Amino acid sequence: MVNHNRHHYVLGQELRITVHTTGAETCGRHDLLEAFQLPNTITPLHLHTRYEERLWVVDGQCTVWAGPDKVELGAGDYYAIPIDTPHAIKAGPGGCRSLLISSPAGFAELIARAATPARLAGPDTEVDFELFAAVSAELGDHILGPPGTTPADL
Fold first, then answer.
1. 45 and 88 in contact (C-beta within 8 Å)?
2. Could you tell me the residue ranges of all domains in the chain?
3. What is the CATH topology of the domain spanning 7-143?
4. C-alpha torsion sign, points 16, 81, 43, 51
5. Half-sphere exposure of 125 (CA within 13 A, CB side)
6. Residue ranges of the alpha helices (H) in 17-128?
7. How far apart are CA 143 and CA 94, in angstroms?
8. In angstroms, rounded to a whole number, what is the distance separating the alpha carbons of residues 81 and 141?
């Protein structure tokens, strides 16, 4: 079966996301997203209490801080972030395009509810941090620090 119902979103100017599958399409087993993180941007330090996050780098590079680990990833590399693990991801100088799989499903719902649909985004689109934090908390995600914070800072 081919899925033609992809949904495109942005989180501010830093992250462009395509939702390829959702929990509704996989009976909650997983979701699949494709993300492009702009060069040298970093996510806030956060953790997921309901799903693990699996990251496969398609193009570019990134650094992942996850618990005690700091891992440099390039095209073709894979890394799994377990449930309840504080983590942050920084894109390399050329950005980073990756596939993100959350298992069980969860991340796609956060994006659908808290990100901006790409068709409505412009050059000044910013993240609605209040909405993002509220939806994150409802779904069991915790924001632990601003961009630039790593697990070692806890």
1. yes
2. 7-143
3. Jelly Rolls (2.60.120)
4. positive
5. 18
6. 107-114
7. 26
8. 13
